[in-house]
Design a protein that fits this description.
Layout (H helix, E strand, L loop, with lengths): L7 E3 H8 L3 H6 L6 E6 L2 E7 L5 H11 L2 H17 L3 H16 L5 H13 L11 H14 L19 H11 L7 H15 L11 H11 L2 H17 L16 E8 L4 E2 L10 H6 L6 E2 L2 E7 L5 E7 L5 H14 L3 E2 L2 E4 L4 E2 L12 E2 L4 H10 L3 E4 L10 H11 L19 H6 L6 H16 L3 E2 L7 E2 H7 L5 E2 L10 E2 L4 E4 L2 E5 L4 E4 L10 E6 L6 E6 L9 E7 L11 H24 L7 H26 L8 H13 L23 H11 L12
Helix pairs in contact: 3-4, 8-9, 9-10
């Protein structure tokens, strides 16, 4: 505003500018920015220049400014006013202003014809404002007051409500609950609360459920309602801030992301017709003879989203499936390993049950310590991502693509939730139309290699290239490892086995076992196996050291290498028989050589045995004396006397009292022959000695 134009004006001055009465300005005081000034005549209102209608400003500026300054001031005023309008006010202004501009200079019949044309070209409420009488009023206000004069008057009651605050707060408290009840039920409960707190009075004009819901939506941001009603995971996915990842400097293949997904297509997991002809199915999978929804564990490239390796399995996922899928990816990538990996932990996965009834949640537990330890051996940095945080993992988005492209076109597809479940699913399973497990396994292998990884993608890092093409263009050589270094990545068999006559027997009924010559001296040892999910003919054997404890690696064993034909006819069968017989002779020779001993003299053996037994007894006595505390009692003297009598044979008698004192001692004989022999020696006898003492 020019400096020579004053800031405040009286009602009389403004009335002169607008050609209206002073009383009219005073009645419209609330439309202006005012201040009160005290003078000799009392208080009076002064009106700010900034709040004056455009026509008044124009008149003042014409007196004190140039035409260019006038145009800029009006435009700025209208722009500021327009930016503060309500949406419905702005919509009306956008409609009426072009018509006012186009009708400049039109009067009478020309204006009437123009308005008829405009009415025919529009619909709805806008038609009612284009009568010639009403339009003249609008145009006069616009010429006089500018944009301010044509602002519609409806919508002034926005935000006003007849809902009592206490009722609204009660409705809010029960509606903003995660997985809470419907707005209708919340409204009924709120109405009941109002009746209970108002002495049973039933309201006649109680606000409707939509009224409560609209008031809630006016007061609470949409994101707050989403967080309260649908939980943090939903809010984080659709409303929470996300980081815009910059992939510059990350080479394809250097970072892998791992996760599990349950397939939404039912397959038959059946025993094969000929077990001996299809050993792979028996030892690789848990046969159930019923439909299952298998899982797939996947490692994908962090930059391109290419699936590097995967492992299909019927059972719930665990750490072993992660390692098996990782091994598959390394082998598909010429034994090259990534520098870093991302993996989820503690996440709840979908139901394993087939029925749509009670759901049993499967919680995947990843052994962080073991995972970190094994990856550290390979020099790989491990990151455990936050659960329920798909922004950190590109793999979550690839799962949706695979399900949409593959699963939805197969028989047995059940949908992502119960509401999407096809009605024909049960009939498809009953008629046996769903795929066999092995068929689906081969199908998904083909799909990933030839469709998913080869399809053109318009993603952030793809720019119209396929995943394989983008991976190849940005590829940089990585570290390689040998097959032996990857043996710890193989599947671990949960059962504990014992090395028996023919090695480790996996299935007694079908005589499936693993054997190698190094097992000969270890028969009877408890072990567990790790096997490649596809190269099942080889097993890596580890010593069993306890549950969830990694045992010592013992060696490699082969599947059923001791099998021979009952009647060896062909050269191959005869060769196999010679190999088996050679292995048996080797084992027998080893055992015979190991059982050889040096001869031991029998007398030496007995003497050593006696010495050892005596030493055992002495040790036992000493240990008893050292291990017990002897308590002295008043009977100890009697015991001591008894022991003394046993030694001397006197038993407490005074021997001096029964001495002979010079008398001849009478000889006592046990047998008569003793007496005859005694008499012959002494050549005399005594009549008293003729009776033998028996």
């Amino acid at each position: 505003m020019p400096t020579n134009v004053k800031d405040w004006f009286t009602a009389k001055e403004i009335a002169g500018l607008l050609n209206v009465s002073e009383r009219t300005i005073q009645r419209r005081t609330k439309q202006f920015e005012t201040k009160i000034e005290k003078g000799l005549g009392g208080k009076k209102y002064l009106y700010s220049f900034n709040s004056l209608p455009p026509i008044a400003k124009s008149t003042l500026l014409k007196q004190h400014s140039t035409e260019q300054q006038l145009t800029l001031t009006n435009a700025e005023d209208d722009l500021n006013l327009y930016s503060n309008l309500k949406p419905w006010e702005r919509k009306y202004i956008d409609f009426i202003i072009p018509i006012l501009k186009a009708s400049e200079g039109l009067k009478g019949k020309e204006l009437d014809a123009f308005l008829v044309q405009q009415k025919n070209s529009c619909s709805g409420k806008n038609r009612s404002g284009l009568s010639i009488g009403n339009f003249y009023k609008i145009r006069n206000r616009y010429e006089r007051e500018g944009l301010r004069g044509v602002i519609p008057g409806y919508g002034k009651n926005e935000g006003a409500t007849i809902i009592e605050e206490e009722s609204y707060l009660f409705f809010r408290d029960i509606y903003l609950k995660e997985k809470g009840t419907s707005a209708e039920n919340c409204w009924i409960a709120t109405k009941g609360e109002w009746i209970r707190t108002h002495a049973g009075e039933i309201p006649e004009n109680f606000p409707s459920p939509n009224s409560f819901l609209r008031l809630l939506q006016q007061r609470e941001p949409e994101s707050v309602i989403a967080y309260a009603r649908k939980g943090e995971a939903y809010w984080n996915r659709y409303y929470g801030n996300f980081d815009e990842r910059i992939y510059d400097g990350i080479a394809p293949g250097s970072v892998w992301v791992g996760d599990h997904m349950q397939i939404n297509t039912a397959v038959f997991n059946m025993l094969p017709d000929s077990i001996r002809a299809d050993v792979e199915k028996l030892i690789r999978f848990d046969k159930t003879n019923k439909p299952v929804f298998p899982w797939i564990t996947v490692w994908c490239d962090f930059v391109t989203g290419k699936w590097m390796g995967w492992n299909l399995h019927a059972e719930a996922p665990n750490s072993d499936h992660i390692f098996a899928a990782f091994l598959d990816g390394v082998e598909r990538n010429d034994n090259e390993i990534p520098n870093e990996i991302y993996i989820d932990n503690g996440k709840d996965y979908r139901s394993k049950d087939f029925s749509s009834g009670r759901q049993k949640k499967i919680k995947v537990q990843i052994d962080e310590q073991r995972t970190t330890s094994l990856m550290s051996i390979l020099g790989i940095i491990v990151h455990f991502a936050l659960p329920y945080n798909p922004q950190t993992k590109i793999i979550e988005r690839t799962f949706d693509t695979v399900q949409e492209w593959l699963d939805q076109g197969l028989p047995g597809y059940r949908g992502r939730n119960t509401s999407d479940r096809p009605e024909a699913l049960a009939e498809q399973i009953k008629r046996g139309e769903i795929l066999d497990y092995a068929e689906y396994s081969n199908l998904i292998d083909y799909f990933i290699e030839n469709v998913f990884n080869e399809a053109i993608s318009n993603g952030k890092n793809m720019l119209g290239k396929s995943r394989n093409e983008a991976f190849a263009e940005g590829y940089k050589p990585l570290r390689q490892v040998s097959d032996e270094a990857l043996k710890m990545m193989c599947m671990r068999v949960s059962d504990v086995y014992t090395i028996g006559r023919n090695g480790v027997t996996v299935n007694q009924l079908f005589r499936i076992y693993y054997y190698s010559a190094w097992m000969i001296p270890l028969k009877g040892k408890k072990v567990y196996l790790r096997r490649h999910p596809k190269k099942y003919q080889i097993a890596y054997v580890f010593e069993y050291a306890g549950k969830d404890i990694e045992g010592r690696y013992l060696g490699k064993a082969l599947l059923n290498i001791m099998d021979t034909a009952a009647l060896a006819k062909t050269d191959l069968e005869k060769h196999q028989l010679r190999v088996v017989e050679k292995a048996k002779r080797f084992e027998k020779k080893y055992v015979k050589e190991a059982a050889k001993t040096n001869p031991v003299d029998p007398r030496r053996y007995v003497e050593n045995l006696a010495a050892g037994r005596a030493a055992e007894a002495n040790n036992y006595n000493r240990s008893m004396k050292r291990g017990n505390v002897v308590v002295k009692t008043s009977y100890d003297e009697l015991v001591q006397q008894d022991n003394e009598m046993k030694k001397t044979g006197t038993y407490g008698f005074d021997v001096s009292k029964v001495e002979n004192n010079g008398k001849k001692e009478t000889k006592i004989f046990t047998f008569f022959s003793e007496k005859e022999e005694f008499e012959k020696r002494n050549k005399k006898g005594d009549a008293s000695d003729t009776s033998p003492n028996s």
